[in-house]
Amino acid sequence: MKFNDNFLWGGATAANQCEGGYNEDGRGLANVDVCPTGKDRSAVITGNLKMYDFDDDHFYPAKVAIDMYHNFRDDIKLFAEMGFKVYRMSIAWSRIFPNGDEETPNEKGLAFYDEIFNECKKYGIEPLVTICHFDCPMYLIKNYGGWRNRKMIGFYEKLCRTVFERYKGKVKYWITFNEINMILHAPFMGAGICFEEGENREKIKYQAAHHELVASAIATKIAREIDKDYKVGCMFAAGSAYPYSCNPKDVWEATKVDRESYFFIDVQARGKYPNYALKEMERKGITPVMEADDIDILRKYTVDFIAFSYYNSRCVRTDNSDDVAEGNLFASAKNPYLSYSQWGWPIDPLGLRITLNHIYDRYEKPLFIVENGLGVKDEINENGEIEDDYRIDYLREHIKAMRDAVNLDGVDLIGYTTWGPIDLVSAGSGEMEKRYGFIYVDRDNEGKGTLERRRKKSFYWYKKVIESNGSDLD
Ligand code: BG6
To answer: Which terminus of the chain has a lower count of CB atoms within 10 Å, N or C?
Structure first.
């Protein structure tokens, strides 16, 4: 019961949740910078509260985050100490194009990522690069309305061409958009969209989704032209939806919930809008505006692999119960067979095997689990140690489920990167104290702390897991 010798073990971060250095070396302001902590965060990330700049009443965690901008050498060294084969990270768009619509890129921004890739190479770590992890230059939001505007495709295309050319030979694996289905649930964070009073929100979201889907296909085309060895993937927030009961109404609703996410991947992996989506849009009168070539581009440039995040399964019931559970992406019905994290997210390792099988059955393309983990409040004990056995237990059970999917079900899995191998800012809540890491970072929700790094017990455990290629999970 093990993995291929070239299985890619590692961890995943996103620029806005770890880099900080929000205004250094010419970087422009981005949507992710102006998402505050506290009660307004949810209204901001969903596009219901317009926040286009900083104010004195809020704390903005992305400004400093964990200051990886200045610490990346030491942090990557720690990843190497754990034996990482791959490091998933993202490029901050506004470091490369501070406004987003410039003719020429910001050399200092490009040079920063050169250094990161050089550092990875030093340790034999393969970078896996997300081109857009929720970020969008603020200038493009203020002046073009974010992804609701078709012009975004051109700006994104320029970003892709620039990084594909610049990092040729240094990077092999690319992901076009992080959790592309997030656009439906957090449109400001997912696509730089703020709503005006009385707008048809569904229509705007699906139009923006169309723009991102076409942009992703164009990126795939350009990547292949620039380097035939490039591997381009899509990425979505996964977690199969279970019907709460065998009542066919529950089963049908659960199918619809799954399709809401599969819709994106159906386009990116199969190359066309699925019929169920076309019909649904037609019924709602929200058919996206398309240009003549769009259908052809989507058909020709499908992805090489499918990446996804898995934190939890979902549960769907139709009897109007208000017994709900939180979770990545959105809340769903509470599943009585599962336990729950401190943030109320279901814990369902078998759900990972189920999800892997559902996705593989549907697409038959290589899969990559690029996020998985448990967000927890960690305590430092009197000896200065963090004994995070709960994290080890969570990961162990998920790795076992993944091992079963590979060995018993024949799922083709390229790799596994846990979310936040080093503690970082939570995307959903903006908190620092929702920790996922093997490495503790001394910083709290108010931005206090020394930023010192400290290895947790799970650090040594994950090192052993990687060393044994997933056979020693004790
Ligand atoms: C995914 C995102 O939604 O889940 C990450 O791709 C995010 O950016 C992760 O951090 C965990 O969610 P949270 O809200 O606990 O940070």
So the answer is: C
Which residue segments constitute the domains of the chain, with CATH numbers given?
8-467 (3.20.20.80)
Closest CA to 322 of 313, 332, 314, 312: 332
| The pLDDT value given to residue 320 | 81
- Strand partners of residue 372: none
In sequence order, what E strands does 162-319 have? Answer: 173-177, 231-238, 241-243, 305-310, 314-316
Q: What's the N-to-C CA distance of the chain in angstroms? A: 14
419 lines ligand 1 (CB under 6 A): yes
364 is catalytic: no
Question: pLDDT at residue 328 above 80?
Answer: no
pLDDT band, residue 324 (cuts 50/70/90): confident
Which atom of ligand 1 is least distant from the CA of 329? 3
Kindly report, residue by residue over 27-71, the tens digit of the pLDDT: 999 999 999 999 999 999 999 999 999 999 999 999 999 999 999
**Residue whose CA is closest, atom 7 of ligand 1?**
427
CA 187/CA 148 separation, integer angstroms? 10
